[in-house]
């Protein structure tokens, strides 16, 4: 079993929909949780960075961490065609916070 | 401002050759990371530098892989005696300090024939 599991999709939604992306993990030592967006042929771009459990909101994006369930989510409200990309979750431990462990990524398409 | 710059963008070489991949981090970023990303997968950690010191090389697959950052800025990842299984996208990232947000480059696509 991989340390971080992420459904690769693909996920296709109409413009304006609320999108929910999720990851589960097995390592209880993970303390830092990130979501990256990766456009085709580009490097991953950091979207959200959270520490431990709770919610964090940034514009149309909300990140949730539930450490008791080892489950993290990214919600995108009012999705736009420009949100079409691969979304990768990543996490790290307090002792090695520089070493990111990524999920496989979920390919999202927002249709106009 | 300029992001993380990697060169070459594409590298095709024959099995057995040595290759050197270059990373130029964002100016002022003291931490530099190398990852490898297979198709349809997330990046996998290879190694990490803080300034010129290699702090963690636990992700390097074997001793054919090495990395350096001699002046605490530009870094080179070298793969000796390349094998077909080394074919992948190699990504570099940098951050202002250890543990802070990592900014990724667009990668070097390495293909071993």
Give structural notes.
The complex is a heterodimer of chains A (112) and B (113). Helices cover 0% and strands 56% of the residues of chain A. Chain A is built from no helices and eleven strands. Chain A has strands at 4-5, 11-14, 19-25, 30-38, 45-51, 54-58, 61-66, 71-76, 85-93, 101-102, 106-111. In chain A, the strands form two sheets. In chain A, strands 2, 4, 5, 9, 10 and 11 form a six-stranded mixed sheet that branches. A five-stranded antiparallel sheet of chain A has the order 1-3-8-7-6, with no helix packed on it. Chain A is globular. The mean pLDDT of chain A is 94. By secondary structure, chain B is mostly beta strands. Chain B is 0% helix and 49% strand. Chain B has strands at 5-7, 10-13, 19-24, 31-37, 44-50, 53-56, 65-68, 75-79, 88-95, 103-104, 108-112. The mean pLDDT of chain B is 95. The interface between A and B is medium-sized, with 26 and 27 residues.
The number of strands of chain B is 11
Helix/strand order of chain A, N-terminal first: EEEEEEEEEEE
Low-confidence stretches of chain B: none
Spatial separation of the terminal alpha carbons of chain A: 37 Å
- The helix content of chain B, as a percent range, equals under 10%
Shape label of chain A: globular
Profile the largest sheet of chain B: 7 strands, mixed
CA radius of gyration of chain B: 13 Å
Largest sheet of chain A, described in full? 6 strands, mixed
Q: What's the order of the H and E elements of chain B?
A: EEEEEEEEEEE
Q: What's the number of helices of chain B?
A: 0
Roughly what fraction of the amino acids of chain A lie in strands? over 45%
């Amino acid at each position: 079993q991989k340390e971080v599991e992420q459904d690769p999709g693909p996920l296709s939604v109409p413009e304006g929909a609320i999108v929910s992306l999720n990851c589960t993990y097995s390592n209880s030592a993970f303390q830092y949780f990130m979501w990256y967006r990766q456009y085709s042929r580009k490097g991953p771009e950091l979207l959200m960075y959270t520490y431990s459990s709770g919610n964090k909101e940034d514009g149309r994006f909300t990140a949730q961490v539930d450490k008791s369930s080892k489950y993290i989510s990214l919600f995108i409200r009012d999705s736009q065609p420009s949100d079409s990309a691969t979304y990768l979750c990543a996490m790290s431990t307090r002792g090695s916070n520089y070493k990111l462990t990524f999920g496989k990524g979920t390919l999202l398409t927002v249709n106009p | 401002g300029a992001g993380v710059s990697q060169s070459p963008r594409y590298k095709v070489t024959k099995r057995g050759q040595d290759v050197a991949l270059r990373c130029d981090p964002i100016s002022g970023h003291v931490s530099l990371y190398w990852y490898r990303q297979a198709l349809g997968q997330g990046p996998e950690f290879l190694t990490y530098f803080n300034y010129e010191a290699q702090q963690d090389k636990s992700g390097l697959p074997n001793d054919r892989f090495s990395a350096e950052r001699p002046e605490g800025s530009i870094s080179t990842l070298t793969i000796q005696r390349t094998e077909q299984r080394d074919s992948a996208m190699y990504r570099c990232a940098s951050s202002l300090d250890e543990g802070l947000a990592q900014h990724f480059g667009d990668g070097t696509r390495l293909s071993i024939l």
